[in-house]
Protein backbone atom coordinates (compact mmCIF):
# COMPACT_ATOMS: atom_id res chain seq x y z
CA UNK A 1 0.00 0.00 0.00
CA UNK A 2 1.52 3.30 -1.02
CA UNK A 3 2.07 6.13 1.39
CA UNK A 4 -0.87 8.51 1.28
CA UNK A 5 -1.60 11.95 2.73
CA UNK A 6 -5.07 10.78 3.73
CA UNK A 7 -3.95 9.02 6.92
CA UNK A 8 -2.86 10.61 10.19
CA UNK A 9 -0.25 7.88 10.77
CA UNK A 10 2.03 7.31 7.79
CA UNK A 11 5.14 5.15 7.46
CA UNK A 12 7.20 3.77 4.61
CA UNK A 13 7.02 0.05 3.87
CA UNK A 14 10.45 -0.31 5.51
CA UNK A 15 9.15 1.36 8.67
CA UNK A 16 6.02 -0.83 8.73
CA UNK A 17 8.18 -3.94 8.36
CA UNK A 18 10.09 -3.01 11.53
CA UNK A 19 6.91 -2.94 13.64
CA UNK A 20 4.75 -5.63 12.00
CA UNK A 21 5.34 -9.35 11.65
CA UNK A 22 5.47 -10.67 8.07
CA UNK A 23 1.89 -11.97 8.41
CA UNK A 24 0.66 -8.64 9.80
CA UNK A 25 2.44 -6.73 7.02
CA UNK A 26 0.95 -8.97 4.33
CA UNK A 27 -2.60 -8.33 5.56
CA UNK A 28 -2.35 -4.75 6.86
CA UNK A 29 -0.17 -3.20 4.16
CA UNK A 30 -0.69 -5.51 1.15
CA UNK A 31 -4.42 -6.14 1.68
CA UNK A 32 -3.98 -9.86 2.15
CA UNK A 33 -6.22 -12.30 3.98
CA UNK A 34 -5.25 -14.63 6.80
CA UNK A 35 -6.37 -18.24 6.59
CA UNK A 36 -9.83 -18.87 8.01
CA UNK A 37 -10.05 -20.32 11.54
CA UNK A 38 -6.43 -19.45 12.41
CA UNK A 39 -6.96 -16.39 14.61
CA UNK A 40 -7.09 -16.94 18.37
CA UNK A 41 -9.41 -13.92 18.46
CA UNK A 42 -12.18 -16.10 17.03
CA UNK A 43 -12.46 -17.60 20.52
CA UNK A 44 -12.07 -14.35 22.46
CA UNK A 45 -15.19 -13.61 24.51
CA UNK A 46 -14.04 -11.28 27.29
CA UNK A 47 -15.37 -7.74 27.43
CA UNK A 48 -12.94 -5.35 25.77
CA UNK A 49 -11.83 -3.62 22.59
CA UNK A 50 -9.96 -4.62 19.47
CA UNK A 51 -7.24 -2.19 18.34
CA UNK A 52 -5.39 -1.71 15.06
CA UNK A 53 -2.03 -3.49 15.09
CA UNK A 54 -0.48 -0.63 13.12
CA UNK A 55 -1.41 2.40 15.18
CA UNK A 56 -3.33 1.24 18.25
CA UNK A 57 -6.62 2.91 17.30
CA UNK A 58 -9.66 1.25 18.90
CA UNK A 59 -11.74 -0.15 16.02
CA UNK A 60 -14.13 -2.82 17.33
CA UNK A 61 -15.80 -3.81 20.62
CA UNK A 62 -16.69 -7.17 22.07
CA UNK A 63 -20.30 -5.92 22.37
CA UNK A 64 -20.50 -5.94 18.54
CA UNK A 65 -18.64 -9.24 17.94
CA UNK A 66 -20.55 -12.35 16.87
CA UNK A 67 -19.73 -15.85 15.63
CA UNK A 68 -20.40 -15.73 11.90
CA UNK A 69 -19.10 -19.26 11.30
CA UNK A 70 -16.79 -17.89 8.58
CA UNK A 71 -13.51 -18.39 10.44
CA UNK A 72 -12.72 -14.71 10.98
CA UNK A 73 -13.65 -12.40 13.84
CA UNK A 74 -16.89 -10.70 12.78
CA UNK A 75 -18.61 -7.58 14.05
CA UNK A 76 -21.97 -5.90 13.40
CA UNK A 77 -20.36 -2.45 13.30
CA UNK A 78 -17.14 -0.54 14.03
CA UNK A 79 -16.59 1.21 17.36
CA UNK A 80 -17.42 4.52 15.60
CA UNK A 81 -18.08 5.77 12.09
CA UNK A 82 -14.78 7.69 12.19
CA UNK A 83 -12.58 4.72 13.21
CA UNK A 84 -13.00 2.61 10.07
CA UNK A 85 -13.11 3.73 6.43
CA UNK A 86 -14.21 1.77 3.37
CA UNK A 87 -13.51 1.59 -0.34
CA UNK A 88 -14.60 -0.60 -3.24
CA UNK A 89 -12.39 -3.64 -3.82
CA UNK A 90 -12.44 -5.22 -7.32
CA UNK A 91 -9.79 -7.92 -6.70
CA UNK A 92 -12.26 -10.77 -7.27
CA UNK A 93 -13.68 -9.15 -10.45
CA UNK A 94 -16.84 -8.11 -8.65
CA UNK A 95 -17.22 -5.27 -6.17
CA UNK A 96 -16.77 -5.84 -2.46
CA UNK A 97 -16.54 -3.27 0.31
CA UNK A 98 -13.05 -3.32 1.84
CA UNK A 99 -12.52 -1.73 5.26
CA UNK A 100 -9.37 -0.29 6.77
CA UNK A 101 -8.23 1.66 9.81
CA UNK A 102 -9.04 5.31 9.16
CA UNK A 103 -5.96 6.41 11.13
CA UNK A 104 -3.18 4.43 9.40
CA UNK A 105 -4.85 2.67 6.46
CA UNK A 106 -4.21 -0.87 7.74
CA UNK A 107 -6.42 -3.29 5.82
CA UNK A 108 -8.91 -4.95 8.18
CA UNK A 109 -11.17 -7.04 5.96
CA UNK A 110 -14.52 -6.62 4.21
CA UNK A 111 -18.09 -5.77 5.11
CA UNK A 112 -21.03 -7.81 3.81
CA UNK A 113 -24.81 -7.25 4.02
CA UNK A 114 -25.56 -10.65 5.62
CA UNK A 115 -25.03 -9.97 9.32
CA UNK A 116 -27.41 -10.11 12.26
CA UNK A 117 -29.52 -7.34 13.77
CA UNK A 118 -29.27 -4.55 14.58
CA UNK A 119 -27.22 -3.52 11.50
CA UNK A 120 -27.59 -6.48 9.14
CA UNK A 121 -23.87 -6.10 8.43
CA UNK A 122 -21.00 -8.56 8.84
CA UNK A 123 -17.66 -6.82 9.18
CA UNK A 124 -15.37 -9.80 8.49
CA UNK A 125 -11.99 -8.90 9.98
CA UNK A 126 -8.53 -10.47 9.86
CA UNK A 127 -7.55 -11.20 13.47
CA UNK A 128 -3.84 -10.88 12.68
CA UNK A 129 -4.25 -7.10 12.32
CA UNK A 130 -5.98 -6.72 15.68
CA UNK A 131 -4.73 -6.42 19.24
CA UNK A 132 -7.32 -7.27 21.88
CA UNK A 133 -7.36 -5.37 25.15
CA UNK A 134 -9.61 -6.88 27.82
CA UNK A 135 -11.66 -4.37 29.80
CA UNK A 136 -10.25 -5.78 33.03
CA UNK A 137 -6.73 -4.91 31.82
CA UNK A 138 -7.55 -1.36 30.68
CA UNK A 139 -6.50 1.60 32.77
CA UNK A 140 -8.48 4.81 32.95
Kindly summarize this structure in a few lines.
This protein has 140 residues and is mainly beta. The chain has helices at 13-19, 22-28, and strands at residues 48-52, 58-61, 65-66, 74-75, 84-89, 96-101, 107-112, 122-125, 130-134.
Structure write-up:
The radius of gyration is 14 Å and the shape is globular. It contains two helices and nine strands, in the order ααβββββββββ. The protein has helices at about 15-20, 20-30, and strands at about 50, 60, 65, 75, 85-90, 95-100, 105-110, 120-125, 130-135. It is mainly beta and about 140 residues long. The model has no long low-confidence stretch (mean pLDDT about 90). The strands form two sheets. Strands 3-4-8-7-6-5 form a six-stranded antiparallel sheet, with no helix packed on it. It has a three-stranded antiparallel sheet with strand order 2-1-9, with no helix packed on it. It has one domain: Metal Binding Protein, Guanine Nucleotide Exchange Factor, Chain A (Beta Complex), CATH 2.170.150. Helix content is about 10%, strand content about 30%.
Amino acid sequence: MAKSARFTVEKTDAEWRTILTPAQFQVARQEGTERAFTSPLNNEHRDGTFHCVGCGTALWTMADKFDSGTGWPSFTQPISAEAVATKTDWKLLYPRTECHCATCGAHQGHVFPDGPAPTGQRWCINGVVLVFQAKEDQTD
